[in-house]
Amino acid sequence: MKHTLFTIVLSFVGMCFSPAFARVYHATPHKFVQPDGDTVSVRLFGTDLYMDAESEDGYTLIRDEVDCYICYAMLSADGREYASSGIRYNGGAAPSEVSMIVKPHIRLNAERRTEIIEDHKSLLGLDKDSVPQLRAAMSLPDTVYGVCLMIDFADRKFTVSREDVETFLNSSDRTVYGNARSIKEHFRWMSGGKLTYINYLPKDIYHAPNNFNYYSPEDATDYTTDRFFPVVTDALLAISKEKDGFDLNDISFNGRKIMAINIFYAGASPSKWATGLWPHQGGYTFNLKSKYSNISSKEWHAYQMSNLDKELTMGTFVHENGHLVLGLPDFYSYEDENDDNNIKDFNIANTFWTPDDKNPELLNPYSMDELGWLTNKQDITNIKDGRKITIKQEVGNAAVFYGTGANANERYYMEVRDKHYANYYGTKNPGVMIWHVNTKGDNNHAGKPELLDGRPATSKNCMWNSKNGPKVFDDNSNPSAKWYDGNNSGIYLWEFSDPGSTMTFRCGNELSTPLAFLTESLPDGEAGVAYSAKIEGEGGEQDYLFYLKNGSRLPAGLSLSSDGVVSGVPSEGFDGNVTIVMKDANNTKVEKEFYLKIKQIVTVAEYSFNVEVDVNDGYNATIVDVNMANLAGLLGISASYLLSEIGKNVSLYAVDSNGNLEKSFTANKGYWYNLSGNVEQWTENSTSAAVFAEIDPDGNGMRIGQYPGNTKVDDTCTIRQVLIYGEAQIMLIYKVHVTDPSSVESLPALLPVDGVIRVYNEKGQFIGEIDSFTELENIGSTHGVYMLEQCGVWYKIVK
User: Fold this and answer.
1) Is 629 helix (H, G, I), strand (E, B) or coil?
2) Please, what is the end-to-end C-alpha distance for the chain in angstroms?
3) Which residues, including other chains, have CB under 8 Å from residue 330's CB and lie 6 or more apart?
4) pLDDT at residue number 14
5) Alpha-carbon distance 50 to 139, whole Å?
6) How many helices (H) and strands (E) does the chain have?
7) Torsion on CA atoms 370, 372, 376, 378, rounded to nearest 10
8) CA distance 538 to 519
9) Which band of pLDDT confidence, cut at 50, 70 and 90, is reported for residue 754?
10) What angle do CA 729, 732, 738 make, to 5 degrees?
């Protein structure tokens, strides 16, 4: 009787590493061909690090190393080796001679399994790999680009078309082979639209130069990827933008490593499990430096390899790319498929294996949360008043209860799931699934707390609802809500609703809080400006209903929604009280009177100024005398108060070309504008910011200037601002004209005797008015360059 110790040894030539993930098998059916050509079905258990095979009725199997037939296995006395019984496996029930000498489900002892796993980790570099971390939403881009290769052999060609693979990967509205959706749409669905995952697929199938058996020999005892990696490297290097529409530089990277390489090879998987090119996930230092890429030859890149025979299925592809793209950890045990995780037999959310290869479920809520995909997450940690919590069976919906202090690393998630009984799916069994998370835990190895487990309602049905499980989930219930170290969690959930796609439960047992308003006051508003204020309540029985008391009214343009939001655009001023009624689910009512002030702004004056800006003057500004004392008087305040309170009690707003107010300064107590008169942000390389208008800090008026290089001679711009104090406003309009005073011709003759003459210095700054040319001696310096404007005509003189 020959002995075959069943291990998975990966002998890679060259430097090879793998991320700390493994492909999982849990009674996964697989067909193998015996040497005589008969096909038998076996069930696989374990991972890439350690795997067992069983007959359909549960007897452990191995390959006999002499005749290569799959035979029933025996176990050595010390539990460290398998041996072939010599009895061939033909499918179906085991013959009596097998049941007489061995029991079903025999396994190597735990010590030996651990040794094998650790050997494989060392071989793969996993003992040096960091603990896998979910990629936070802030570091995961909106769109991730992977690459998917199709490689056939001299004696094996694909029966699935490239077009079907493209649809399987990237279609927005079609699917193939009965899959629920494409890979791209699956990740978009799970992420609530936050992630688009696209796999580039080369235009041509890559042809390996040899037969399949060269790369995956039938007599192989280990993986033989070292023979195949040169083909994968050549297939990657053959990609070019000219031929394929993309190159390797277009693929998403995690640091300097390609994030996801997917490899489909043609035909069935090897006839011996965990040997040759058996499907697996790993990493390898593909030398990808070429004229099409600058990728370092020293980096290892994550990949997953699968055979593609008669059809495409999503399950394994989604699972493996969850590792590659999202950084998902594995939640099952690497050391024993019969681990004691308390929700393993329910397999919620495909957490432990993939039961439906064509319709994988949503991720567990812990993973969704870490990725930033729980868009409707309710924090119920501090809810003690027994209020009703409502959760929908929708993507991104869950409630969470966080541990504190010494237990800050633990939490509970509650979400609505369905179809799960122990070890099989029901047709429809909705309920609240309670997950437990210990972020310092590890599902993969014995002797550590679980990273992810649960609190199943019963041993047969994990879903909490009015018809299944205890009435209360707390520290004294069974299952208990205590934390891992035995400390009380303080969670108290009760009154679970009937099963349904929307479910409720109550949180907390302190029920003495009376119905009351939490909101103390309403903020002031302004007529013509959008208004929104949320009114909050507490106590009583949620949900709350809000409405106006009879005889009470809001100003025109505002309304009160049933969930307590006062919103709209008021069209009139208002100064008075509004009485609002809040009613809870038990029809208990309370009311509160709120004071509401809606200011009706009145324009008391409007001034317009013509401003000349010298195109050669850099950021230097023209001072426009707006007569601050006059403006302050119109607002009923002093000039000094106006200047000191701008941006505080006195508002200076920009008015855009559509009449809308911009309230956040983009200049120093002022605004930058484009040539259309709309507000812009100043940046060092801006191409649209053109002119600015800001308060002169010395109190001389307004400073009007330009963005050098963004204006040219004869550009014009009309900018508007309003000064507001109380309910009075003043409109200020500046008609800016960009000029080049150095290009104006000298005065050819005496000016006309009639009409006011405006005098500017050589920078275009206004310095006064005269009635005739002879009065110029009375203004400014006796020597210098002056610009004169009369009736729209400009002159330059030199004194």
Assistant:
1) helix
2) 120
3) 21, 22, 24, 47, 132, 323, 443, 444
4) 30
5) 33
6) 11, 49
7) 40
8) 10
9) low
10) 165
What integer is the mean pLDDT of 483-504?
Answer: 96
Compute the distance between CA of residue 716 and CA of residue 613 in angstroms, rounded to an integer.
10
The confidence score (pLDDT) of residue 749 equals: 42
Q: How far is CA 708 from CA 39, 98, 230, in A?
A: 80, 92, 58
**Fold equal for 516-596 and 602-739:** yes
How far apart (Å, rounded) are the C-alpha atoms in residues 366 and 363?
Answer: 8
H-helix or E-strand spanning residue 167: helix 162-170
CA angle 346, 350, 351 (to 5 degrees): 80
Which structure tokens are listed for 79?
A: 């539990």
Structure token pair of residue 104: 């079903």
CATH superfamily of 516-596: Immunoglobulins (2.60.40.10)
Q: Which CATH number fits domain 602-739: 3.30.390, 2.60.40, 3.40.50, 2.30.30?
A: 2.60.40
The domain limits of the chain are 16-128, 143-326, 348-507, 516-596, 602-739, 743-798
Neighbours of 109 (CB within 10 A): 13
Instruction: Note whether 133 and 78 are within 8 A (CB).
Output: no
| 3-state DSSP of 526-573 | ECCCCEEEECCEECCCCCCEEEECCCCCCCCCEEECCCCEEEECCCCC
- Integer Cα distance of 391 and 411 in angstroms: 18
Mean pLDDT score across all residues of the chain = 86
What's the CA gap between 632 and 699, in Å, rounded? 12
Is pLDDT above 50 for 386?
A: yes
Distances (CA, A) of 563 to 223, 225, 521, 542: 62, 62, 17, 11
| Contact between residue 728 and residue 719 where contact means Cβ atoms under 8 Å apart | no
Residue 399's CB: how many other CB atoms inside 10 A?
Answer: 25
Q: What is the Cα–Cα distance from 607 to 222, expressed in whole angstroms? A: 88
pLDDT confidence band for 339 (50 / 70 / 90): low
Task: State residue 441's pLDDT score.
Answer: 83
Confirm if 457 and 463 have CB atoms less than 8 A apart: yes
In this structure, are residues 135 and 144 in contact, taking their beta carbons and an 8 Å threshold? no
**Residue 461 neighbours by CB distance under 10 Å:** 19
- Confidence band, pLDDT 50/70/90 cuts, at residue 347: confident
**Selection from 538, 451, 30, 468 nearest residue 273 by Cα:** 30
Does residue 131 surpass a pLDDT of 70?
no
CA proximity to 7, closest of 98, 99, 122, 89: 122
pLDDT at 210 over 60: yes
Task: Name the DSSP letter for residue 336.
Answer: -
Has residue 316 got a pLDDT over 90?
no
Condensed to tens digits (0 to 9), the pLDDT of residues 676-708 reads 999 999 998 899 999 999 999 888 889 999 999
Using DSSP's 3-state secondary structure scheme, residue 195 falls into: coil
Residue 702 CB neighbour total at 10 angstroms? 24
Q: Which tokens is 520 given?
A: 């103390």
